[in-house]
Amino acid sequence: MKISTRGRYGLRFMLDLAEHAGEGYVPLREAAERQEISPKYLERILPVLVRAGFVEGVQGKGGGYRLVRDPASYTVGDVLRLTEGDLAPVACLALDAEPCRRASFCKTLPMWQRLETVLDDFFDGLTLEDLLEGEAAFKRHPPSS
């Protein structure tokens, strides 16, 4: 599985907003500069984040974007699914996939389903707040065996 730049940049932008939450609205250009992301590229990701109610924006002087909720309430999984579409490791498990004619006898399907569960559990077990804390959060959330 490969997370696209859309997913990675969306997550970085959300983290930037979380990191500067106490400063009011964060201008897009400032966040883009700090994250080394093209403002034009962020402008293409923002409508998805706004429509989903993850961020809100204000135009004009003093405007910008901010998180709608506390950083602890956004999981990495939520942000990635929103920006990526889904996190399926193979095409047959994607949300919009046609039923696979091989599913009833596919020897690899259970493996892919388990991987999808591991990915979902991992990404849904981490919040923006956890990522802001860094390594300490990963010590609290060790990998499952």
- The whole-angstrom Rg is 17 Å
Biggest β-sheet, characterized? Answer: 2 strands, antiparallel
Count of folded domains: 1
CATH architect. name: Orthogonal Bundle
Can you put this structure into words, describing what you see?
The protein is mainly α. It has one domain: Arc Repressor Mutant, subunit A, CATH 1.10.10.10. The chain is 50% helix and 6% strand. It has 7 helices and 2 strands, in the order H-H-H-E-E-H-H-H-H. Strands 1-2 form a two-stranded antiparallel ribbon. Helix 1 packs across helix 2. It is globular, with a radius of gyration of 17 Å. The mean pLDDT is 91.
Distinctive features:
mainly alpha; 145 residues; 7 helices; Arc Repressor Mutant, subunit A; two-stranded antiparallel sheet
List the helices and strands and how they pair.
Elements: H1 5-19, H2 28-35, H3 39-51, E1 55-58, E2 64-67, H4 76-84, H5 109-124, H6 128-133, H7 135-140
Helix pairs in contact: 1-2, 1-3, 1-4, 4-5
Summarize the structure in short.
This protein has a single domain, classed as Arc Repressor Mutant, subunit A (Orthogonal Bundle). 50% of the residues lie in helices and 6% in strands.
